[in-house]
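Troubleshooting log. The previous structure file for this entry was overwritten by mistake, so regenerating from the original sequence record. Sequence copied from the archived sheet and checked twice against the printout by T.R.
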Amino acid sequence: MIEVTKILKKGVESGDFPGAGYAVIYKDGFIDYDFVGYRQILPKKILNTGEEIYDCASITKVICTTTMIMKLIESNKLTLDTKVSSILSRFMHKDISIYHLLTHSSGLPADITRAKTLKSREDVLNRIYDYQLINTVGTTIVYSDLGFILLGLIIEKLTKKTLDVFAKKVIFDPLGMAHSSYHPDPSMCAPTEFRDDDVYKGLLQGRVHDEKAFALGGIAGHAGLFSTPNDISLFILSILNNDSKVLQPATVEMLFPMRIKNETEDKTLVRSLGWDKPTKGGTAGDLVSFEDTILHTGFTGCNIWIERSVGIGFVMLSNAVHPKRNLNNIIKYRNKIGNIVISKKET
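Regenerated output below.
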């Protein structure tokens, strides 16, 4: 889509992010794909070729973890009301259910403090299992990586498979997502941040950017997926067409309704199962249907949304945190791009 490419080129020229790849996906199967900018700018500039694999960060939560949890619900191994402590015996909060983790309403904190000091899986799990709640269960939305790490542990416990293996079996292979994995070929990856701490020193290329996922060996419920816009387009098409390759139509239907909403004077937070819902000024633009749109973002610069009332989806992958996270200025482009994509569809 020429207009989107022009906007992203301006972003690259302004130094707001090194580069990006994106796709506009139509229900009839047409995929409008383009890319801009650089794969990397440190230690030297290398232009994108369109074949880059990106660290998808928190988009992992919806493409992989939420989808795998819903597969387990389909197979009657879980329900939304299943208590986390009934599966993870070390988890001390007895009232928290799968539903609360999916909707970020568990009462758990958002993150692990001083995550850069985490050196092992044991470090991560010990910290998570020790955390007290910061809110009453089921009342307040706090976007929590901890909750999705727990969902990842639940998937591994019930399937007796690591997340990368189970995701390949039930998502990547059925959809033909050949370039999606948790352990990509580094030579194909757009690097993210230059990390410099006691755990790791060097450019992260083909290794997950998120510090908690890094300590977990790159395989986690909240981050770790590496993919391409074209691969994620296949996932979006499956949702738009209810094609049952991954999730049954009745399960897809469960993803779209609003489940919890918190409003303050300056902010509105709305969650569905795993996914975010559109709000004014949000990353899918202001023209999408609230009821028929789900969306998510990723810290590295990625975002995804699916609008089923008009049969359109969008994904943009970027390494906007390269070479340092404080240079990431891609967020301000998302709303405008979303509005362009929908307005073009409507005409």
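The chain has ten helices and twelve strands. Archived copy saved in two places this time.
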